[in-house]
Design goal:
Layout lengths: L6 E2 L15 H14 L4 E3 L11 H15 L5 E5 L4 H14 L3 E4 L9 H12 L6 E5 L1 H4 L5 H7 L5 E6 L5 H10 L4 E4 L5 H7 L3 E2 L8 H12 L3 H15 L7 H11 L16 H16 L23
């Protein structure tokens, strides 16, 4: 049942107001900008979407808005990041009812499952709906590692169609392909390994910093997947200091600050996260502003929504 997903699927932030309430209008405007840049899909309510800081009803409102905004123009996926397998199954069922095109499934939160428990969780949620699923493997953040051998055991679950490979070890891409061929579509989930991942066979990129630099992000992926490696390397070298912002523990704050700096959203986050301040904020702003000042000249986009063109109507 592989749906043919490939290309850039940004992990969209959930835009918030200063009082930490949802700003669905701002999130919808950002989705339109991302679509105009050429993305092939969007992932709502992943780690960058602050999934676990939102109430269950809020998450469903975000997805209702995203499905309505995209109106079938590109696939809309939701992260599934719940504290129990039963809650994840309920959420998957609700996403199917709301019209989501797929899911990105994380291990159950707040518990370091062993391999048997991890596979039971993924199998159970896979059978809770008919939606295709990207399996999110990020052992650095979530302390659960889904190995190539485990993916081989899970290969009989037809709804598990893709892997977001975020272990930080690009060898995994080759190991998965050697073991399983094209059984799973591989997405890279680590921004500052995107070019290496494309070279090794990743077919998609669940991008973070590209939320602030969508045209440059799409251009990098298009150059890499088109085999234009010299141009891709040149663009990657400009982009790398920004891409490093996707890695630290405060990546949500860093990327939201970048989104604000380019006029595509606001930096507000949901507690326990807090907006950056002091020397840390200034250091991140220095990287972001240097990237803006030196950003490469790309062909002007067609259509009314040119990122960073001014007049976007986003609050700052």
């Amino acid at each position: 049942m592989k749906p043919g997903w490939k290309g850039v699927f940004p992990a969209v932030t959930t835009q918030l107001k200063r009082d930490q309430s949802l700003d669905l209008d701002a999130t919808a405007r950002h989705l339109d900008v991302l679509l105009e840049s050429g993305v092939q899909g969007v992932v709502m309510l992943g780690s960058l979407g602050e999934n676990n800081s939102l109430e269950p009803e809020e998450k469903r409102r975000v997805m209702e808005m995203a499905v309505k905004t995209m109106s079938g123009r590109v696939p809309v996926l939701s992260g599934v990041s719940e504290y129990s397998t039963a809650a994840a199954c309920r959420y998957a069922h609700d996403m199917e009812r709301l019209g989501a095109d797929g899911l990105m499934l994380l291990p159950a939160m707040a518990y370091k499952a062993d391999p048997r428990e991890t596979m039971a969780h993924f199998r159970t949620v896979a059978r809770a709906s008919g939606l295709p699923i990207i399996c999110y493997n990020n052992p650095l953040a979530y302390h659960v590692d889904i190995t190539p051998e485990m993916f081989a055991e899970l290969a009989d679950e037809e709804t598990l169609v893709a892997i977001k490979e975020s272990s930080g070890n690009v060898r995994r891409i080759t190991d998965i392909i050697n073991a399983l061929g094209d059984r799973y579509t591989i997405f890279t989930g680590v921004d500052d390994l995107a070019l290496e991942s494309a070279l090794l066979g990743a077919e998609g990129w669940i991008a973070g910093v590209g939320l602030a630099f969508p045209r440059e992000n799409q251009s990098l992926w298009d150059l890499a997947t088109g085999g234009q490696w010299e141009k891709a390397r040149e663009l990657y070298r400009w982009y790398m200091p920004l891409l490093h912002l996707d890695i630290p523990i405060k990546f949500v704050q860093y990327i939201k600050l970048a989104i604000q700096e380019v006029g595509l959203g606001a930096e507000w986050v949901r507690a326990p996260r807090l907006p950056l301040e002091g020397a840390e904020r200034e250091a991140v702003l220095t990287i972001i502003r240097r990237g803006i000042e030196t950003r490469p000249q790309l062909p002007a986009p067609e259509g009314p929504l040119a990122p960073n063109s001014g007049g976007t109507g986003f609050p700052v």
